[in-house]
Write a structure and sequence with these properties.
With 232 residues, the protein is an alpha+beta fold. It has a domain at 73-229: Protein Transport Mog1p, Chain A, CATH 3.40.1000. The chain has three helices and eight strands; from the N terminus they run H-E-E-E-E-H-E-E-E-E-H. Strands 1, 2, 3, 4, 5, 6, 7 and 8 form an eight-stranded antiparallel sheet that branches. The longest helix is centred in the first third of the chain and has 30 residues, at 25-54. The chain is globular, with a radius of gyration of 41 Å. The protein starts with 24 loop residues before the first helix and ends with a helix. The chain crosses the membrane at residues 27-49. Residues 78-102 are annotated as: Disordered. This is DUF3558 domain-containing protein. Keywords: Membrane, Transmembrane, Transmembrane helix. Residues 92-102 have a biased composition (Basic and acidic residues).
């Protein structure tokens, strides 16, 4: 190039530089990140929803019983059926109420005795109620284990259904001149164990007491006790 030649113009005739091409890389990266975030939220919501729908139902709460509103354990006992065999009270009712404490969940007991003109003929009902807390073993299990060990002539046992969650009965008959009949019914329901004991002594020359007669009495006593112990 000589001194007389004009300099070459690097721009178009308009005199302005050409417009720069837009850079789309940032938008693309940002769009992808937003899409991933949306998909991630959707997946998380779906997982949580799936877990919620698949969660097993909560177990039903076990029946709760309390002795808070029981002032006298013998209020839970109906002695009228025993008077069929022995109509006369033999001494005052004996009862005990052990209130719940840090060391004990509480218990109740009642004992009623009856006699007749014949001093050999007597009837007795004993109610025992014991509560448990948490995973403590129930008194029902101990009662059942103890009675199951009693076998032999004049002894019998079997299950009870329709009262509480579990139940059993045990009976014993023994004696020569006097027939002694012992009938036990135990039930477990929730946090309470209930035991009803019916004891009869009858001279051999009078009508004897049979299990078919006393079992309905014991079942009614157990239901009465459970009903009276239901929490308010």
């Amino acid at each position: 190039m000589t001194d007389n030649e004009p300099p070459t113009n690097p721009f178009p005739a308009s005199g302005y530089p050409p417009p720069a091409k837009p850079r789309r890389t940032g938008w693309i990266v940002g769009g992808i990140a937003a899409l991933v975030a949306v998909l991630g939220i959707g997946i998380a919501v779906g997982v949580v929803a799936g877990q919620s729908s698949e969660r097993p139902p909560e177990p039903a709460a076990a029946p709760g019983y309390s002795m808070d509103h029981v002032g006298n354990a013998c209020d839970l006992v109906d002695p009228a059926p025993l008077r069929k065999w022995s109509p006369t009270p033999k001494g005052p009712p004996e009862h005990k109420e052990l209130r719940p404490s840090k060391l004990d969940a509480g218990s109740l007991s009642c004992q009623l005795r009856y006699s007749s003109g014949n001093s050999l003929d007597t009837a007795e009902v004993i109610l025992d109620v014991n509560f448990t807390n948490g995973t403590a073993p129930s008194f029902y299990d101990n009662w059942k284990r103890g009675n199951a060990a009693k076998t032999g002539e004049g002894k019998a046992s079997g299950p009870i259904t329709g009262i509480g969650s579990q139940g059993f009965w045990h009976s014993e008959v023994y004696g020569d001149l006097v027939a002694d009949t012992r009938y036990v019914l135990c039930v477990l329901d929730g946090n309470v164990s209930v035991r009803v004991r019916l004891n009869f002594s009858r001279s051999r020359d009078v009508a004897q007491v049979h299990r078919t007669e006393v079992q309905p009495i014991a079942e009614a006593q157990a239901r009465k006790a459970l009903s009276g112990l239901k929490g308010n």
